[in-house]
Predict the structure.
Amino acid sequence: MVVRVAVAGASGYAGGELLRLLLGHPEVEIGALTGHSNAGQKLGVLQPHLLPLADLVLEPTTAEVLAGHDVVFLALPHGQSAAVAQQLGDDVLVIDMGADFRLQNAADWDRFYGSEHAGTWPYGLPELPGARAALEGAKRIAVPGCYPTAVSLALFPAYTAGLAEPEAVITAATGTSGAGKALKPHLLGSEVMGSMSPYGVGGVHRHTPEMVQNLSAAAGEPVGVSFTPTLAPMSRGILATCSAKARPGTTAADVRAAYEKAFADEPFVHLLPEGQWPATASVYGSNAVQIQVAYDESANRIIAISAIDNLTKGTAGGAVQSMNIALGLPEDTGLSMIGVAP
Amino acid sequence: MVVRVAVAGASGYAGGELLRLLLGHPEVEIGALTGHSNAGQKLGVLQPHLLPLADLVLEPTTAEVLAGHDVVFLALPHGQSAAVAQQLGDDVLVIDMGADFRLQNAADWDRFYGSEHAGTWPYGLPELPGARAALEGAKRIAVPGCYPTAVSLALFPAYTAGLAEPEAVITAATGTSGAGKALKPHLLGSEVMGSMSPYGVGGVHRHTPEMVQNLSAAAGEPVGVSFTPTLAPMSRGILATCSAKARPGTTAADVRAAYEKAFADEPFVHLLPEGQWPATASVYGSNAVQIQVAYDESANRIIAISAIDNLTKGTAGGAVQSMNIALGLPEDTGLSMIGVAP
Amino acid sequence: MVVRVAVAGASGYAGGELLRLLLGHPEVEIGALTGHSNAGQKLGVLQPHLLPLADLVLEPTTAEVLAGHDVVFLALPHGQSAAVAQQLGDDVLVIDMGADFRLQNAADWDRFYGSEHAGTWPYGLPELPGARAALEGAKRIAVPGCYPTAVSLALFPAYTAGLAEPEAVITAATGTSGAGKALKPHLLGSEVMGSMSPYGVGGVHRHTPEMVQNLSAAAGEPVGVSFTPTLAPMSRGILATCSAKARPGTTAADVRAAYEKAFADEPFVHLLPEGQWPATASVYGSNAVQIQVAYDESANRIIAISAIDNLTKGTAGGAVQSMNIALGLPEDTGLSMIGVAP
Amino acid sequence: MVVRVAVAGASGYAGGELLRLLLGHPEVEIGALTGHSNAGQKLGVLQPHLLPLADLVLEPTTAEVLAGHDVVFLALPHGQSAAVAQQLGDDVLVIDMGADFRLQNAADWDRFYGSEHAGTWPYGLPELPGARAALEGAKRIAVPGCYPTAVSLALFPAYTAGLAEPEAVITAATGTSGAGKALKPHLLGSEVMGSMSPYGVGGVHRHTPEMVQNLSAAAGEPVGVSFTPTLAPMSRGILATCSAKARPGTTAADVRAAYEKAFADEPFVHLLPEGQWPATASVYGSNAVQIQVAYDESANRIIAISAIDNLTKGTAGGAVQSMNIALGLPEDTGLSMIGVAP
């Protein structure tokens, strides 16, 4: 099979990571690459690590440029994907790496994004219950947010097994690439090196309703989420520390069994042996997820911690994984579960 | 006043930070410095940033060496302070930077440290209600742990004001100096740079009972603590993200008022203007504490976040602050509230 | 003495570091602080580590605002200092932290900056031969560049002693704060963490003629400089690796003797014991300079390496040191020689 | 083809990187993995990023364990490889990632290592003139040192083209993984983060004679090397800044032409477009080499700068590349030229 792929938004971090993976994907042929303010520039300047593409020139993001490909990935600012997708045919697989089509609830969209809801597409987190079926043969896919990927995978087994109360408390640390290439003072190297800081505290981060959606679906009842993201002095990685009160009668063995069952057949999720905890370095550049869970008897809480690479499993790797499923390819084609460490 | 000071354990990070502060303390004269395996070595090799002390030679940690000083700081592995303190006279101010005398409950000590409880000394966190009175004129002081310092300051106002339910959920990120100079593989630069990882998950970290003790005292009832520490890729700093469910009827204004009242007269604690959040870089090398608090209405939780330098306010700076109080000196003598940033 | 000080350009890294030092200077009273695009903003947002100044509001950079102070520091983009200085009286001490008045040779200025040469002021690197005399009582001072500070101190003793051939090869690594707060993609945390990269290679860096000027003065003949700066994944610090061929007959003992003599009475320059090498962490936040020198017999080269904090000794600390000399204060007033490490 | 491979020294950084690459090599089957003090431990604990090998147990490093493989990689402390290699048959391809067989001159070995010289094997830097021929069909290969890889590739074209004087001055910055997993205080995260420091200054670093050997071979005359290595706050990467005086009559165009010719057909060496400079982040985790060269007319020096990943091209990737050549496989099998960035 030769899958011809276009990437809209190839100059950013998500686009760059996607191209890194597509270059190693045996069934993919890279076609048009587009940018906005960077159109006309060589990729070698914008993404100097992608040596084989150094001489490619970014084109403008238009339907004409993106037409004629089997798959089009959209790595655009939120609110822009719907218009582009409409102009591409229904037979083209469109994979949106932005937020536009993740939420099912239009009111949530309105509250967190303040614009009209574009719709809901099949959700590209294959490890969630029932998710794979919706992705097989799909022509439209919404790639999850990086935080919701890490958090949903860490907590859904506790909810599907009915072990956790429906109030989750989550603190996550992200590498700076999660904030993209935006030129903002607080993202300067001088500011982030040697510093940890929170942002979007108090229920206002836009990934919150997506977590609520995923965990509520797993629990079969509304799950409240208290989510605090923090910026860590590293380029890549998310470490999500997630906890919820245990339902009465829950034992440590119940918790372990639920997680072992949930991930037994998952190619990318690695439930660590008891006593070993995740580290973001271990999944650097890979599509792997490391998870560990514990039951704190004193506090009566289930504590699940996951580590992902925000750009790989959290964005571009998750997108490729979903593409593989949609196209009927082996799910791990072109994806690695081996981190680049140390 | 000339205060003659000895430091037992001068080769480690806590000892080094203490000496850095004492060198800038106008009333202090530095006397004997001791080490264990490093006795006989020059400080210039062990602590190359302390230029004025470069030619001092570490002596062995014995009562003879430590005798004859007004103040003796102990930066020793836990379990060793009691024997040393006993040999020093009752008129010497002994300040223990280790864990031995922090806990009031012998059963807690036994459970978390597995040895005999040495006792309880006045607790060196002056900002806690009633703490200063116990420190004035004291001859024995237990310096708090770095995490309990960050966490107790972030949460006690919510408890003293009766706004929070007695179950706290805490995730904290620490710089690697919090783990000391121990030669362990996971503390190598190659391992920690670019990586976040948790440790001591599930209620087993030794600082947990100390947080329970402080928050329970503030609340006037037992407070449960779920504490997850994480190791961040930075040398210094603790960012503590602390939350608890709000008691019925609590408003955002109540929360703000409680925190403003708690810290109105504190020289080192800076409650940030609304909308601005702490960053560990802002308190780097200083005795300052940055705190911000929010009320998340959706999740009905109070979220308080603090940033400290684990070596300064979290260890050596807190020790000097308590020494100043004990000796009747102005509390901020020799201490800075200005961070070294960026 | 009460010295009233104004700072033009208080929102950048150099201005922030200067304020950090001035806050600890016992003879200084901080007056007007000005900014350009940030005028009207509170310093607490722009420099959150300067807690005591959090509520100060930046004023626009005008002669009116800066008038009425004993000392005015200019931390402005190059080319702007002359106009401001002209409007301040001759009795005001004006200290320019930019490049405008460092070079003696107008042709050099034109070649590297492409504008008209503003003039030459007394050069604020007191450790250079004869420099202190020019600074005593001065009313205009040009603060050296950060790289020329590190490089000139590392190499001048070899030239004043006549031990080195007049061709120096220099590679220096700087922390990102040396590039200021400019919003450029290559300065984003995601780009700099985990990466080393050179820039300004091949004799084009603007600090090159300043090094040539200083080393030629020391040698008494023109010294050629090959200078390669590199950007390192750290916020602060310069490590300068400097070498030159040894003149015939030079011995290791000659080299050591020349350096010991040059720095014997310098309060801030610490020639390390033989075998110990500088580290930027050891001078973090301090005005200290660590230097070590070796003679490589195989290659017949003298290798001198210095470590400074680019913001302190390399900019703001050097400025305060020169101010102290100009005002007749003890040279180390308000300055520390103790690094904040680890 | 199925190539059965054993790795002696699988618990260190070089061994781990080798396994990461071998897991992605389509012709390789991983056989015995051995360790020294770690024998008996699971790889999942020692190398948590190598998920597919998590349950493998390290065996002791003995000839019996290593026997029966087509290829044996040795990642052992220097001085230990000869004894192991002797016990393996002549038909086994033995690839030594240590220093033992790199040097041709026994006196150099004795001077820098102080033990008996084990011999000289074909040198695994295929890009050097004539190197590939010696590797084809070889049964013994010495993998170059990481620094000599970066430096030799950066400078040999200037010497083969006769453009440079035979005295090279080199400063290189390395990530901490270059120092291995040894538990030494100066390698602790607290020490290296935020710090640059030199080591092995003055011609004493053991990689110096290897650089001399390579550059002298390229020049056809003895080349002197002044080499200063520095430790940078990053896990991976080497940035080598190399320069030499230009021979009379050399022009910038000559230099550019020599480098374009030298690397025109090299799959892994990427001579950057003029004006763009290497960054170690761009080659992170890849076998690529980024090189740029300039002629500084003022200083009359050729300045060549290279960036590699010290663990990949600098060690394990170079080893796999040489294995591919020796076995007659396409040279880039299992190797990537795409960096993991940002």
